[in-house]
Amino acid sequence: MPRRNDLHKILLVGSGPIIIGQACEFDYSGTQACKALRDEGYEVVLVNSNPATIMTDPETADRTYIEPLTPEIVEKVIAKERPDALLPTMGGQTALNIAVALAKNGVLDKYGVELIGAKLPAIEKAEDRKLFKEAMQKIGVEVCPSGLAQTMSEAKTIAEEIGSYPLIIRPAFTMGGSGGGIAYNQEEFEEISQSGLDASPVSQILIEQSLLGWKEYELEVMRDLADNVVIICSIENLDPMGIHTGDSITVAPAQTLTDKEYQRLRDASIKIIREIGVETGGSNIQFAVNPVTGQLVVIEMNPRVSRSSALASKATGFPIAKMAAKLAVGYTLDEIPNDITKKTPASFEPTIDYVVTKIPRFAFEKFPGALPVLTTQMKSVGEAMAIGRTFQE
User: Fold this and answer.
1) How does 118-135 read in b/e, with b if 16+ C-beta sit within 10 Å?
2) How far apart are CA 364 and CA 247, in angstroms?
3) What total number of domains does the chain contain?
């Protein structure tokens, strides 16, 4: 399908200030998306609260608003600019949460703004832990034994049902694992559960049996309106489950998967992106594999351009954010040329004959109050990437 001519002005929401867990990866994706949309002849309006980014440079978007990122302020921008569509998948969790708020309180309908890139049901299915678990059970993909709590008493009941510590606590609709953690006993469990309920905007936490020590993998997946799905890159985390992916040393492509295991991950990813309903653009899906039995469980999915997308883009040379922006306005993967080969379309899965590693950078000396222990909350402040022929190199 060619580009959509019914859209003229598109609003992008940035990711706001650079904090641990939400750094310049989203500036990278937002800038790519602005350029791609302007190349296609659309008028781009950008809202971001951080003036120290490349995407807020005057030449990136047609009009830029440096304002606090709240649903109320974004509503004012929508009222003034009257965009045809909102692309929320480029600004990390901040932009997704704002898009959800605007869709739920009727602002988008009131001004006739369409959500492109990811529709509301898809965002909710991927981000709401309960809906995600139900969707996975429907398509037969295994999830970790877990339960959802919205109060402390519910949390305690679930802990008793699962029956053994350690337990992992994950708040819904948060970024970088904030508010969550691993509880090794009742006392820690109560403390972390409370902070998780406070951190989640919908005060919902997922309590799951710990998969500590399992191998962790991520796949970057893209889908278009014609239901073509490609896997851009597989990423393996050297640090096992229990350490946030942003703090993990990661390697692309995955090194210790047999072909059969990789195909299982690939098949599961394609099933998941179709079931969740991300029609256009990229998603990041995380899996855990038991190193002894080979049991496969899906951990979570991000229906947006993520931290790993930036790594996958740089590792494979496949500009995920740019492609996602083009898919959002109606192109299909076979219509977009591959930037590197210039001959093949984007529907060809990139394969790489080299190894890319990412090593996180920590600055515990700057945060004397922080415990220098890695958990499910992200603590690294940056990362370095290297490319070599082999993993040793």
Assistant:
1) bbeebbbbbbbbeebbeb
2) 13
3) 3
Among 75, 101, 116, identify where a domain stops: 116
282 and 234 belong to one structural domain = yes
Rounded Cα distance, 271 and 193, in Å: 32
Residue 81 lies in a domain: yes
Token digits of residue 243: 């350490």
pLDDT at 21: 58
Indicate if 371 and 229 belong to the same structural domain.
yes
Q: Could you tell me whether strands 167-171 and 205-209 are parallel, antiparallel, or unpaired per DSSP bridges?
A: antiparallel
CA dist 288 and 295 (Å) reads 8
Same-domain check for residues 339 and 197: no
Sheet arrangement for strand 296-302: 296-302, 281-289, 215-223, 229-237, 250-252, 355-361, 382-388
Span 116-159, pLDDT tens digits: 988 999 999 988 888 999 999 999 999 888 888 888 888 888 88
Instruction: For residue 369, count other CB atoms closer than 10 A to its CB.
Output: 5
Question: pLDDT, tens digit, for every residue of 316-363?
Answer: 888 888 999 999 998 999 999 988 888 889 888 888 889 999 888 877
Phi, psi of 165 (to 5 degrees): -90, 160
Q: Which residues does 119 contact at the CB level (< 8 Å), separation at least 6?
A: 277, 279
Q: What is the residue range of 200's domain?
A: 145-209
